[in-house]
Amino acid sequence: MKIPLSWLRDYIDITLPPAQLIERLTLAGLEVASTRVLGLPIPEGVRVKAEERGPVWDRDKIFVAQILSTEKHPNADKLKLPTVTWGEGTQKLLVTGAPNINVGDKGQKVVLALSGSVLFDGHAAERKLSELKPTTIRGLPSDAMVCSLLELGVSENKEDHTGIILLEDDAPVGMPLADFMGDTVIEVDVLPNTARCLAMIGVAREVAAITGQKLKPLAAGMQTTDEAIAGQVNVQIEDPTLSARYAAALIKNIKLGPAPGWMQRRLLYAGMRPISNIVDITNFVMLEWGQPLHAFDYDILVQRAGGKTPTIIVRPARDGEILVTLDKQERKLSPEHLVIADTKGPIALAGVMGGLETEVTEKTKNILLESASFNFVSIRRTFRHFDLPSEASARFSRGIHPETVKPAVERAADLMRQYAGGSVCKGLVDCYPAPRPPQVVDFKIAEMDRLLGFKIEPAEAIRILQALEYDVAPPPANAGGSPYKVTVPTHRLDVQEGTADLVEDIVRIYGYDRVPTTLLSEPLPKQQANEPIVFEEKVRDILVDCGLQEVVCYALTMPEKETLLLKPQGEYANPGDVPYVTLKNPISSERVVMRQSVLASVLEIAESNLRNTDDVRLFEIGFAYVPLAGRASDGPQLPDEPRRLAIVMTGNRGQEFWEGGGAKEKQLLDFFELKGVIEALTQDLHLKDTTYQPSKAAHLHPGKSATLRAGDRRIGDFGVLHPKVAQAYNLGERTILVAEFDVEALQAATPVRFSYTPVPRFPAALRDIAVVVDEAIPAEQIESEIRIAGGELLGDVKLFDLYRGNQIPAGTKSLAYALSYQAGDRTLADKEIDKAHRKIEDRLKNVLKAVIRGKE
Amino acid sequence: MFGDKKNAMSDLASLEQRATAELSACTDEAALRAWNTKYFGNSGEVLAALKAIGGIPKEERKVYGQEANRIKEVLSKGYEEALAGAKERALNASLTANPLDVTLPGRPVARGRLHVATQIMRQIYAVFADMGFQVYRSREVESDEMNFELLNMPPHHPARDMWDTFHTTMPGVILRTHTSPGQIHVMREFFPNPIRVILPGMCYRYEAITTRSEIQFQQVEGLVIGTHVTMTDLKGTISAFARRLFGQERQVRFRSSYFPFTEPSIEVDIDWPKDDPNADRLTKGTGWLEIMGAGMVHPVVMRNGGYDPAQFSGFAFGMGPQRITMLKHAIDDIRQFWGNDLRFLRQF
Q1: Which residue segment(s) compose the domain that A107 sits in?
Q2: Which pTM value belongs to this model?
């Protein structure tokens, strides 16, 4: 809502400097988003965006002037030579090409800028200030000009440079323009609960409460002729819940023309384009009172009624009814939409747009002026349906108090009398079937104190309420503790609960800067950790320690990006078969469903980063969104949101360094690099009974992938991404290492506590053992047999060599382990160690048919 | 040589002379070690001279022995000194020879990092944990009822315009537009106990993705419910938070505002440090910067959560960690967060 301060001054004297007014309004809940200053120097402390700064109208150089005569330019047909005066004894011959000045013109009031004025260049492509300098136009000297809105910085619209401004006839010749039409315009963000401030009077009421001043008396009533409206129009409201009130005034014999200059300027400053006196008056009153109005051509209504008294009917549209609206569009209606109709059919889309047939035109003589109150939900639905947002629908859809209907229509009718030559018929047809009762709420001082935590004196609180036009009745003197009865003013629809709402009004006017600060005195609630978050953070820390970078991805994706990773067993053959949480109103075709694979997200991020680097090591812990079948008994069935961990690694093992020249051979990350990370994770989480088995996941390399289990819990699959899948993700020929784990399973498998292993105080003895076994025997099994045989004395078992080749039989492999023997209470004797070591050798020979190297 | 009894003493003298001369000719540690082996090794000359005492006539043995031992002491001491000197010289030489070019780049370390969003979340958790706030998380795919209706926004309420919503194909199921539905969840779970929680998580808005707006972003909401929770507590709690996160000298300003689920509702501004070169741009010249919305829990919401507003009161607040990060580091493009460009992430 744009508020020219000159307009606001019609309703209240503003004593605060603009900067202070802006700050006070902002703190009280009417945030001033921007300020424009027209023709005046920027007031101290006021911020104007660079792109909105305009010229300052120099009081000594820019004036209201009058054309005395207009001659033809001797050398150019399009140019004219007006002579103007800007006060007694002043006269100047100008050269202008303005199309709205014609040879022979005289008497018009114009804006004159003398040489040295700084204005926007009306002909430049961009907004550029330039100084007016004496020049010669087609052989005639020119050192002054008549100005357009664009040059003055009032309008940014190029159309407003097609002609100069013609001021109203009573504009005072010789007055500096800055005094005549300079202004400061503030733009206020209006929140849903301050919809009443989509009106100058509403804002004036706020200023009154903030500054403690009184509103000036508002223009009220209308001067009418003796001809009564009664009998000339009927109004019916079919459903008072859809329209609480509908009032009409009848104005006869209007003359369509331009609105007065001051009114046009106010509309322009407030952001609306002047059109004609009738339209401008309805807009003016809408901005003044917040009540949109609509003007019908009365004679067309009579015509439609077959010459009889027209009847206005407010009703839901009938299914299939058609209305051609002002914008010449044919609108197909349904009972969802509220219409204004007559006996013949719809004539307007209530609160949203008028109909073409009944609109006011140059031929219009008599006007039926509508002022009504509509159900805001209905208006909201209708303007959304037809995508017709407007100043009117913006106001109706937030709710307007029905009490505003009458003063607004009377004000507009009276302005039509004054500025469109109309005669206003006596009275209104005011259909108000169920008047809204006054809203009375309880106000409890003790509750205010309880909510605030500090004391605002009751007298001060009540003073503020009264300044906001609440009517406050004190509680009976002898009834201790009973509430005040507070009547809500008839321009407010936002009061819902009583004391809480009143406290808001009181404290915002009292001033939040005066609210003291305290720390919570409430006893501390029972303290409990959020285990899932604690666990995730631990996993994050471990993976970061392993050198991985965390990413956080979009949860919205498209099914095609996940197909290759989901349900690899082929349960779903097509992307469309996977049930998804699917958006009804996606913003782009790439963000249509809620993801079910976190790995797909991370692969996408890997791909984008691999355009800049060869090395990525990424992980994400995030949600997947898995729809559940069926419907919950107590509402819609919401999806499961399990957490997943995804890892993607590719690139070089080491990092490039200058030492040793550039000839070093690069080592690429492989399966065991990823497994190292996973082992770090399982060890730091103290997972028990972890096993690794070849994975059957279709998206992984069949020979280079594994399934991790902890006990019988399946944690997930990891390994080298199947080359075909890697290609599908545009990852090229690289070896891509991936993992996707079920974080819920991982957390469930993580023991709540673990006991430490005492640090040995006695030295360990190291013995190596190399075994040749059949290729098919997995390393995990060998180690497990070593441990079984080694018993308590065996400490670390470390594989240090794996050999396949000529020196051992084909189909076998040799694994060499460093075993450490240790006891907690003594240094082991060689004999003990020999015995334990032999036991291991024997078990490997017997169970695995292993050959112990060096002891064949 | 030492078998010759007559010349035994003069042999000793010449041994000392020779050994001393050779010792002083040794310039480095290696030469000294060789000298040591020659004279003090297992078959070294000094040892041989000492062993030779057996062949010396009884009456001369004492003198010979004394002289041989003296020579041994002198040479051995001379050797130790020379060795220490040589080591010192070698060390001094090594300390000054071939100094490194210390401006060469260091060996790169393979680093892992938390996403900047996780880092700011942890900071926020920590500050609130110190004030006794626990973390409560609730779902992202929500019912319209939880996201709007129970938060005092019936269908078609004008306040719903404040949140552009992603609807799903399931009727009544949406992507949550804010973390506020968590308020209802936590109240229903905790009733009738007092509540002091923060509610973090991802939220979604139907908006064009631009440098200033995203379809997904995190929020951290706070909720306190009890029998003595007041507006002054709200101001105190938020001031304490703002000072922990933005600096002890920060001023906090409350502005009246509107949210359907709080009454009164406020916006919280802080004064932005004037020494930040971006201060003027960020604050649009006002010096103040909005960091969160807040208010006293609306009686309707309180009742929907199961608490009687006549007996309980509460406050709630909500902030955007991405916005806070952008302010702190002058980030001008919100798309960086989920774009996950390593060149961006590595800076935090």
Answers
A1: 62-181
A2: 0.87
